[in-house]
Amino acid sequence: MAIPRIAAAADPAPIVFDGDVPLDGPEHFFAPFEVPEGIEEIEVRHDDQSETNILDFGLNDPDGYRGWGGGTDEPAIVGRLAASRAYVRGAIRAGTWKVVVGKAKVVASPARYHLEIVLRTTATLPEQKQRTPYAPPPPRPGRRYYAGDFHVHSLESTDAIPSLDEIATYAESRKLDFVEISDHNTVTQFEFFADAQARHPNLLFVPGIEYTTYHGHANAIGATRWVDHKLGQPGVTIDGAAEAIRAQGALFSINHPVLDLGDACIGCAWKLDVDPRHVSAIEIETGGLKQSGFIFIEKALAFWDERCAKGQHIAAIGGSDSHRAGETNGPTSSPIAEPTTMVLAEALSTEAILEGIRNGRTVVKLQSPADPMIELTSSVAPSGDTVRARSTILSAKITGTAGKNATVYFVKNGEAEAEVPVTSDPFVHEARVAVPDAGESRWRVEVRVDGQRSTITSHLFMQRDPNGPDPLAPPPSSSSGDGHGDGGCHAGKVASSAAWAWTLAAGAIVFFTRRRRIR
């Protein structure tokens, strides 16, 4: 693969690799090197030696993962008390270490790479006392809709720039309750949570990982342990990764599934075959609707609907994909909170937010927190996201439309019902639903403003219980119907009942640029 040679006459001696990128085999390969006893710090300098080819770089110690820098030009430094961003500090064990090289884009031949590995007996980085093991903060009880952004990058993603403080300050200015920090293939961001959380007690940092491959990006919502992304290596599969994410109590979601921009966004469109039972959510909107979301929303909804039509119960979420906190990087990038996702949860905590997603209690505001809100209610209380009955009355309460030209409509099994003008704030729109004899039906609600989609809820699924409630049945003394066809919709105020409310909110994503590409 590559032949190491001793560079300058130093003690210990730097190690230099000049090698050819293997054009066959898996998408990642390794450059092994030996670390003797007594080393306090290792620095890896790397270069893909091309303006056309793109290589990613990471580091393994004798036990495995030690960090992932991706396509950055920055050298990687790891030591016992400190490490460069996206890399793990800790003991420097003697033995075989490996530089990990990912073949992100190899089109020009010959493809070459250059590595310089500097071994130091004295560390150069100061101790990073702010890095502490992750521990979730105490939950803040209260059942309500919490506003957040499920796709935010900190500087521990080497293609991003904001600190956690900058992220929190901007998110608070948008009145968000939480942000998920989903950095690329690393977990070092979590070591900084406690330090920043102490300065921002009203905003919850939700842990997460953007599981980034060359054939699709997933969101490991709530994950705090690293999951191997090097698909094609022995034992590394997408289903195995999804299982490893779920084994942590985290959720597997698909990010920007239809964002197919070729080499401008390597691996951004979803092209992996994952067991559908692993998928808990789909990012139906990435970036704000006006920035770039309008380009992909129709295809993203079709991607979501296609899977739900096969019986998969998948929640809708949105994320800005912000790499710059409140800044933008061109007209197609979005700041945090664009879009915004609302989650009905029992408390402001990571576990409660995850449970809200599991139960489909989400609403996506496609542009910002200022978009209209939808609260979807069933007169027969659901179990999770499923109503089991003979019939039910769905009620959609719309707020935040004052002064706006808004319409609301139900979507049954992916097909839109008739639109109804929103004439007051709040406004209630109903659907009287007969549950099918076999299989299931699914219902969501959408609001348009000035003819353009603005807010979308997750689905409520209907499954028939032959002995279940039947609020549409005529009274025993009546021989006539109630005047509404099965599944018909009308505006009005729903009667008081043991209703269960849930909602979804929409948000906005950012298209971000890394060296010569968007990630």
From TrEMBL:
PANTHER family: EXONUCLEASE (PTHR42924), POLYMERASE_HISTIDINOL PHOSPHATASE N-TERMINAL DOMAIN-CONTAINING PROTEIN (PTHR42924:SF3)
Cited CDD domains: PHP_HisPPase
Origin: domain of life: Bacteria
Spans through the membrane: 494-513
Protein name: CehA/McbA family metallohydrolase
Biased composition (Pro residues): 468-477
Stretches for region Disordered: 461-489
Keyword annotations of the record: Membrane, Transmembrane, Transmembrane helix
Keyword Membrane: yes
